[in-house]
Amino acid sequence: MTTTVTVTVVSTGSGNKYALNGNQQATINLLEGATYKFDQADSSNSSHPLRFSTTSDGSHNSGSEYTTGVTTSGTPGSSGAYTQITVAVGAPTLYYYCTNHSGMGGIANTDVA
User: Which residue from 6, 58, 62, 75 puts its CA 20 to 30 A from 85's CA?
Assistant: First the structure.
């Protein structure tokens, strides 16, 4: 079973932020072994590819992209675009971030199912 998370980008006084299912910079909980599809089809996602890292703010904070179990498809802001992750057993705490802009993301806790 795949859980779909709708991703939009909202403009705030301090720049753009991801909103997951309508919650701005939400901390999310991902269960080991589960699959999550981060739907980036909304036009607000244009130029904001969502990725994961073990470092807060990812590549903007000397971190690197976390790719274990992660697949991507399409161009953010276009129909069918998404980032999907099947959470590995023993996965570390992750952070979702925008590869193009700093300060947009948040925490993705990983928990035992």
Answer: 62
